[in-house]
Structures are given as C-alpha cells and as structure tokens.
Design brief:
It is a single chain. By secondary structure, the chain is an alpha+beta fold. 34% of the residues lie in helices and 28% in strands.
C-alpha cells in the first residue's frame, strides 16, 4: 500500500559537480545556493484521492487529465529550493499558521501546504494548468517532508560540505528536527510566552538570532523598526494575523522541536506601558509607540495608515 505522500528527488551528477566547483572557487557566492544550484527533478507521490473539485472532475472526464490514485507530480526545479521551501511551509502549517505559496520556476504554478482541521495537512499540487489538493494525516505529511529534508542534508554533507555546514544546511537540519517532532506528537504543545524588549535598540534582532540559534523557526506577526530620531520609539507594522488563539497580540511565534512559544512585547520599566502595548498588538494595523518619561514612562501610541483585516473580517 502506497504511503499517503512521499517526496523524492533526483539530481544529475553534473549539477553536483557544478555546486562543488562553485563552493571551491568562491564560497561567498553560495548565498543563493538553493535557487542557483542542484537543478533536478522533485517527485511528489500521492497515495490518497484529491479532494472533490468540479473543475478537476471536468478535466478528468473531458480533457483526459490523469489524477487518479496513486498519482505522482514531477517537477523540474532547483531541488534545494523546493525541498527547503516545502520544509519551511510544512513547519508553519503544522503549527496552525498560514504558510505562503511556493512559486515554481518555468511557469508551472505553485505548491501550497496548509493545516486542515486538527490533525491533517493539505498539499496543493500543480496539475497541468490546474491544481489538486491532497489531504493527508499531519504525521504522515510531516514525516514525508522531514525525510526529503534529511535526504538533501545527506547529499550536501557528502558532496558540498561548505553548504551543509553553512546557513542553508543548518536551516534544513532545524526544519527536519521540528517536523520529526511534529510527526511524533499529534498536538504539539504551546509553551509559556517569551518576553522581548521591543523598545530597546537591537533587542528584537538579538532575540531573533538567539531563538534561531537554539533551533527555532520564527513566524513573525509584526515587523518592529526603531525610529532613529527617538531611541524610545518604535514603528510596528503587521506582517500576518496569527491563527493560533494563544498568539493573539504576540510579536511572533517561535516553533521548536516538540512545541511552540509566542514572543510577546516587554517593557520592563513600565508594567502599565507593557500591558497597553500588548493590547494594541492584538489589532493588526500599523502604529508607532514611544515611552514618555515626563509622564512616568506612559506609552504614547500614534496610529499609521494601512493594516491587515482583523480575524473574521474581510477586506474593505
């Protein structure tokens, strides 16, 4: 019996040698390694029926679209890019957040991964100018993507160690570890919030680096930019609305192997300002916040234009 989903890839020897030569000649040029090297074929094999879709039924019956069970989608793409992006999107989706679509080269469409209910993942796959959605158990989806990331890690370690030991290799290892843990636990727990001193220079960046170095995948909800003319003020721009109830009002979600913890705003000098800021962060519209020492470190908030719709609201 075929597994619900399996991801495999093939990389020509010539592409491996090209990557090796690039690493030896100019290691610094490997910044965009995942997009520029290891072009090959990614094969996604689906062992479950695609979700009911009138258009898909029409294409099957009238146009002869092959979309039965089992079904395989073969994609000629930069392998490291596809495997890496699919791994990141699966991590995000497995923890209930909205993962961005993954555009493919050559005009063949995009890949998508989304959480489906409590314990499933929906994989949107390109099918000859259309797309089919395969829903698989979360554990099976996470396990399949983790296995593909592990295979790519092994290839890089054996053939391009400079990449395996660099940022991309560490990223792959981090995503694989998170997905292995997600496959073993049906409902990953959410830990206690982690405070971040958002109004202090460099604190957000330092916190992000620290969490990632500890093996966390950060899902940002807000971009925080300190204003150069006022060290006590910061501009907050919403990036995405959190879907997890426990993350409402958080700055980001840090996903670790085996669980997740929201990052929350901290203002140690003023508990009142901290409470005000956290409440304002529950509304996904941009604003500027600054402390006013003359008023006992009370928080002054200035609204800016634009923003994201609130959960449950449409665009207006």
């Amino acid at each position: 019996m075929a597994p619900p989903i399996r991801i495999r890839f093939e990389v020509p020897r010539s592409e491996v040698e090209r990557a090796q030569e690039a690493a030896e000649r100019a290691p610094g040029a490997l910044k965009d390694f995942d997009r520029e090297h290891l072009r090959g074929r990614v094969r996604i094999e689906v062992g479950v029926p695609f979700e009911p879709d009138p258009v898909l039924d029409f294409l099957r019956g009238k146009r002869g679209l092959a979309a039965g069970v089992p079904h395989a989608v073969s994609l000629d793409q930069p392998v490291a890019y596809v495997v890496g992006q699919v791994a990141a999107a699966t991590v995000i989706a497995a923890f209930g957040e909205t993962a961005p679509m993954i555009p493919l080269t050559g005009g063949v469409g995009a890949l998508g991964i989304a959480r489906e209910g409590e314990d499933a993942l929906a994989f949107s796959l390109p099918l000859e100018h259309y797309a089919g959605v395969a829903v698989v158990p979360l554990a099976d989806g996470a396990r399949a993507v983790a296995a593909a990331a592990g295979s790519l890690e092994s290839l890089l370690g054996a053939s391009v160690p400079a990449v395996a030991q660099g940022p991309f290799g560490r990223f792959l290892g981090r995503e694989r570890a998170i997905l292995d843990a997600a496959a073993a636990a049906r409902r990953p727990p959410e830990g206690d919030p982690m405070p971040v001193r958002v109004l202090e220079p460099g604190s957000v960046e330092a916190a992000s680096r620290a969490f990632e170095s500890e093996g966390a995948h950060l899902v940002p909800y807000w971009a925080v930019t300190l204003r150069p003319d006022d060290g006590s003020g910061a501009e907050f721009t919403p990036l995405r609305a959190p879907r997890r109830a426990g993350a409402r009002g958080a700055l980001a979600l840090a996903i670790f192997p085996g669980g997740a913890r929201p990052l929350v705003a901290s203002v140690p000098s003023s508990p009142e300002a901290e409470a005000t800021l956290r409440a304002r962060l529950a509304r996904p519209t941009p604003f500027v916040a600054r402390l006013d020492p003359a008023r006992g470190d009370r928080l002054a908030i200035e609204a800016l234009g634009g923003g994201l719709p609130m959960a449950g609201e449409g665009s207006h």
